[in-house]
């Protein structure tokens, strides 16, 4: 049973990393976009993802392990692209939204 818990904990911690990446990415996007509806959407995604991460962390703790609290290295690069895109494009909302969609597709895949 211990091996099963180890694998489960690993999977849950991977999902927590994905959540943390999403929170940071959507916060970055919300700060960069100009359109109020996009800001509201991105801010609401942050709250929803934080709630999901909290539930996953509680499950990891219930299984007797320490939950992940940071994002992954790969998506730190993705967040960096959002920052770069916002700076280069003069904070072009459409480009930022497109990048957020791509980030969500990565999250769904995970």
Write up what this structure looks like.
This protein is mostly helical and 110 residues long. The protein has one domain (2-109): Up-down Bundle (Ferritin). The protein contains four helices and no strands. The chain has helices spanning 2-32, 36-62, 73-88, 93-109. Helix 1 (2-32) packs parallel to helix 3 and helix 3 (73-88) runs antiparallel to helix 4 (93-109). The chain is elongated, with a radius of gyration of 15 Å. The two termini are 24 Å apart. The mean pLDDT is 84.
Would you spell out the secondary-structure blueprint of this structure?
Elements (H helix, E strand, L loop, with lengths): L1 H31 L3 H27 L10 H16 L4 H17 L1
Helix pairs in contact: 1-2, 1-3, 1-4, 3-4
Radius of gyration: 15 Å
CATH class: Mainly Alpha
Q: What is the H/E string?
A: HHHH
CATH topology: Ferritin
Arithmetic mean of pLDDT: 84
Provide a count of the helices. 4
Query: Which regions contain 5 or more consecutive residues with pLDDT less than 50?
Result: none
CATH H level, superfamily name? Ferritin, core subunit, four-helix bundle
Shape-level CATH architecture: Up-down Bundle
Number of domains: 1
- Work out the strand percent: under 5%
In angstroms, what separates the terminal alpha carbons? 24 Å
Biggest sheet details: none
Q: Which structural class fits the helix and strand makeup?
A: mainly alpha
**Overall 3D form:** elongated
Query: Roughly what percent helix?
Result: over 70%
């Amino acid at each position: 049973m211990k091996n099963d818990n180890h694998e489960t904990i690993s999977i849950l911690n991977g999902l927590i990393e994905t959540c943390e990446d999403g929170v940071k990415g959507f916060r970055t996007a919300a700060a960069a976009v100009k359109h109020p509806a996009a800001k509201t959407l991105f801010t609401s995604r942050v709250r929803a993802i934080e709630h999901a991460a909290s539930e996953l962390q509680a499950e990891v703790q219930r299984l007797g392990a320490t939950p992940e609290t940071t994002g992954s290295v790969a998506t730190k690069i993705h967040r960096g692209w959002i920052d770069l895109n916002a700076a280069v494009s003069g904070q072009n909302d459409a480009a930022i939204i497109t990048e957020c969609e791509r980030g969500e597709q990565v999250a769904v895949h995970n």
